[in-house]
Specification:
Helix content: over 70%
Structural class: mainly alpha
Distance between the termini: 34 Å
Number of helices: 4
Strand content: under 5%
Number of strands: 0
Radius of gyration: 13 Å
Order of helices and strands: HHHH
Length: about 80
């Protein structure tokens, strides 16, 4: 968790919970789309939430993950 928090902390020392939420939401969307990587993507999403992702923002990014997974499936 500490490494994720360090990566998501800006130069002023503020945790960018919004960035963690973006990645968590995209991961969760990809997980919901299914496929072989779904369990790993859900675990990654949970780790990002545990590291401080803003839970109110995570759901906003899920549709993006679903869209990306759909594009990948059809390419």
């Amino acid at each position: 968790m500490a490494e994720l928090r360090d990566i998501a902390t800006d130069r002023k020392g503020h945790l960018r919970a919004d960035l963690l939420a973006e990645v968590a939401g995209v991961c969760r969307g990809v997980a919901l789309a299914g496929g072989l990587s779904a369990p790993q993507m859900e675990i990654m999403a949970e780790l990002l939430v545990d590291a401080g992702a803003d839970p109110n923002l995570v759901d906003e990014w899920v549709p993006i993950g679903l869209e990306r997974a759909d594009r990948k499936r059809h390419s």
